[in-house]
């Protein structure tokens, strides 16, 4: 969302001043037009934007069938875009395998916390980076990473080196200085999954050569056709309790502008959701 | 070679003070030990170092059989490490295909000039960067690139943009600021082949995400088993005149220390070779 506010070339047109802010959202169908395949009460997901209601074309959304034992809210978390990002980013782009050392930044976030758990399921050693002692404790105790390191610690550089050793896969949710540090800790044929980033002058990319490593950006929309596969697998892992999730719910559309910056100040733990109405009015 | 002189972790042990400088070289066998599979007069290639003669183990070199119509010197050029680098870097890592726009930096160099010609053979539009008007002219007239741009021109940024448009494959022989500029001109699913580089704070790597692009380092030694395939293909293209090459020969081992810096000042055009003796005494 933050990227869409910059007036520069990206993978989507920037949101213009005066337009409804673009956002993925869950909603339910209150009324249908002629010939619609949707029914009143259906749960849907789409780029519905920052609004309480609206009139949309059917192609702007897809119907969500909630598997038994799974919370509809999970379609904004492990079964939604963040979950899809974790799944395809780690398995397809990162090519994680048993015995790998996986480093995850933004590990207490919505995507990061799923990445950590998928890493453990894959049999990797998982090192997590987060910005408060509480988040680190949550990652070690609940999420089950091998080691969580606080990147705001005064001894972070040394603690990072000690905990990380050398990396097979780095799932990058932050970019910048930490990406640069990770570049210096690559193993042979390492893979860096660029998921979210911010501008910073990285210098360590020379190690991509000496370690014949890969740094690859990806967009989750490219995997849309394979979402059903991921949703099925992730739903099973959720039901088996192998994936834990945390939501940070802010109530009220008027709170949305102050909710977004929480993502940049570390003010949330888990998936940040703004609740603008009652999706549970959908027939489930 | 320059990298081997830095005392830091790389893909090979740094060369120590007092050791023979490491270098790939052609030589001929003057004497063989017991049970050797080589014969006196054989042409060999190996990490023979900066020296006129030496005593080596057989596994440190491989015998070169020079195909008819090809100069033995080509095994230090298009049929040597620089040619192998161009071949596997462009075809395997860069996955070049007809219709692609290919950008090559250091294009008048030994690797770069082969990359440009392989790009044309593959059916790509080739934009070349070099550091003098003479090199640019050579690239356009002889090597046959679509456009060569002088990166020392005062209007380079604008000329770069106009010539390059957007890139499918960037074969990077220089890193730094030009890598950063190339990052801003990526097409969807672009591939950056990191071949040689120098430290610089690159910021444009965010475009790897928005264009779902890949930046991959590689080392030619990983492809050793496939050298015969490349040598056969490249030899044919050499004989057909589809690949042109230029050598810059410096005579005398004592000139080697002043020859190496030419690579960093742009003082050479084509493959820089130091001739320390007469490889043509080999039986060919």
TrEMBL record, chains A, B:
<dbReference type="InterPro" id="IPR011032">
    <property type="entry name" value="GroES-like_sf"/>
</dbReference>
<dbReference type="Pfam" id="PF16884">
    <property type="entry name" value="ADH_N_2"/>
</dbReference>
<dbReference type="InterPro" id="IPR020843">
    <property type="entry name" value="ER"/>
</dbReference>
<protein>
    <recommendedName>
        <fullName>Enoyl reductase (ER) domain-containing protein</fullName>
    </recommendedName>
</protein>
<keyword id="KW-0560">Oxidoreductase</keyword>
<dbReference type="InterPro" id="IPR036291">
    <property type="entry name" value="NAD(P)-bd_dom_sf"/>
</dbReference>
<dbReference type="GO" id="GO:0016628">
    <property type="term" value="F:oxidoreductase activity, acting on the CH-CH group of donors, NAD or NADP as acceptor"/>
</dbReference>
<dbReference type="InterPro" id="IPR013149">
    <property type="entry name" value="ADH-like_C"/>
</dbReference>
<dbReference type="InterPro" id="IPR041694">
    <property type="entry name" value="ADH_N_2"/>
</dbReference>
<dbReference type="Pfam" id="PF00107">
    <property type="entry name" value="ADH_zinc_N"/>
</dbReference>
<dbReference type="InterPro" id="IPR045010">
    <property type="entry name" value="MDR_fam"/>
</dbReference>
<feature type="domain" description="Enoyl reductase (ER)">
    <location>
        <begin position="3"/>
        <end position="274"/>
    </location>
</feature>
């Amino acid at each position: 969302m933050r990227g869409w506010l910059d007036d520069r070339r990206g993978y989507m047109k920037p949101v213009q001043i005066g337009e409804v802010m673009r956002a993925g959202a869950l909603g339910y169908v209150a009324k249908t037009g002629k010939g619609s395949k949707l029914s009143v009460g259906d749960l849907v997901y789409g780029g519905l934007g920052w609004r309480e209601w609206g009139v949309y074309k059917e192609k702007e959304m897809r119907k969500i069938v909630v598997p038994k034992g799974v919370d509809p809210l999970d379609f904004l978390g492990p079964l939604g875009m963040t979950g899809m990002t974790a799944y395809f980013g780690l398995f397809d782009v990162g090519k994680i395998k048993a015995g790998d050392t996986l480093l995850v930044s933004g590990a207490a976030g919505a995507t990061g916390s799923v990445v950590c758990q998928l890493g453990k399921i894959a049999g990797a050693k998982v090192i997590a980076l987060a910005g408060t002692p509480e988040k680190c404790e949550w990652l070690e105790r609940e999420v089950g990473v091998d080691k969580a390191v606080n990147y705001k610690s005064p001894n972070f550089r040394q603690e990072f080196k000690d905990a990380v050793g050398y990396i097979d896969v780095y799932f990058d949710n932050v970019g910048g200085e930490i990406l640069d540090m990770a570049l210096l800790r690559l193993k042979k044929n390492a893979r860096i999954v660029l998921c979210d980033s911010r501008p910073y002058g990285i210098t360590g990319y020379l190690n991509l050569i000496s370690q014949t490593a890969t740094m690859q950006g990806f967009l989750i929309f490219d995997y849309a056709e394979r979402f059903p596969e991921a949703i099925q697998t992730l739903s099973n892992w959720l039901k088996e309790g192998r994936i834990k999730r945390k939501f940070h719910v802010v109530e009220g559309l008027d709170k949305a502008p102050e909710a977004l910056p929480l993502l940049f100040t570390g003010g949330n733990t888990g998936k940040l959701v703004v609740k603008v109405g009652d999706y549970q009015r959908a027939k489930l």
